[in-house]
Write a structure and sequence with these properties.
This protein is an all-alpha fold. Helices cover 78% and strands 0% of the residues. The protein is globular, with a radius of gyration of 21 Å. It holds the Pfam family MFS_2.
């Protein structure tokens, strides 16, 4: 009886008579790191109201209207990206491909939006440049987020492990913003006289792109052994 109870608590496969897919604690810890990337991308979006007026000559009111309108792109991009993700069927790396492609698009778009195009276009061209860069960032964020949402599902379907993936994801979601806030407060802002100007935002995006890459790569390493075609064939 004691052995059966132990099996029920610690070994769901023995309890249920089902061979569950399992991950090691190390795989789960680094595999859920892409939650940190998602939080960083969310923080990047928050600076859009600052860069519109400063980098593209767009009034604050118009910037707000544009951001509200551009968020409607989410509904379209979410559906398209999800459909593409479902149809992808490489032998290895379905999730990793989407994680890295999404990161690359979002990182390049953020550097473009907050740096490379700033001060070049104003007026109507400024609105167009701002909108295109923002949409590209949103698409990259959606691609990365779609793959990131599948990490926990692909990593393990063991009911004794799934709560741990949720806990680890939550830890990243809470801790990464603290890291980013301290980075801005104690490292970046002092170098720019505590002004949220274009150079400060450009440097912030460089830091954020680097940090998000680290979290994305960690997630790719954590899920590498399970991110194979056979895993997706067993999913409902």
């Amino acid at each position: 009886m004691a052995n059966e109870k132990k099996a029920g608590l610690l070994n769901a496969s023995a309890r249920d008579g089902v061979q569950y897919r399992k991950a090691s604690l190390f795989q789960m810890i680094i595999g859920m790191a892409n939650n940190g990337t998602g939080v960083i991308f969310y923080l990047i979006l928050g600076f859009a109201t600052l860069i519109g007026p400063q980098g593209y000559g767009i009034t604050t009111v118009l910037t707000g209207i544009l951001l509200t309108a551009l968020r409607m792109v989410d509904g379209v991009s979410d559906a398209v990206v999800a459909a593409i993700f479902e149809k992808l069927n490489p032998k290895r790396g379905k999730v990793r491909i989407m994680l890295l492609v999404g990161w690359a698009v979002a990182a390049l778009a953020s550097l473009t939006l907050y740096g490379w195009l700033c001060g070049i276009f104003e007026g109507v061209l400024g609105v167009i440049a701002f909108s295109v860069a923002y949409i590209l960032f949103d698409i990259g964020n959606t691609i990365n987020g779609c793959a990131g949402g599948a990490v926990g599902i692909v990593m393990t379907n063991d009911p004794t492990q799934r709560p741990m993936t949720n806990v680890l994801g939550t830890i990243y979601s809470y801790c990464v913003p603290l890291i980013c806030t301290n980075l801005i407060t104690f490292v970046i802002l002092p170098r720019h006289n505590y002004l949220y100007d274009v150079p400060m935002l450009t440097e912030t995006m460089a830091w954020f792109s680097g940090l998000s890459l680290i979290f994305t790569v960690l997630a790719c390493i954590g899920i590498a052994k399970l991110d194979v075609r056979e895993t997706f064939e067993t999913l409902p």
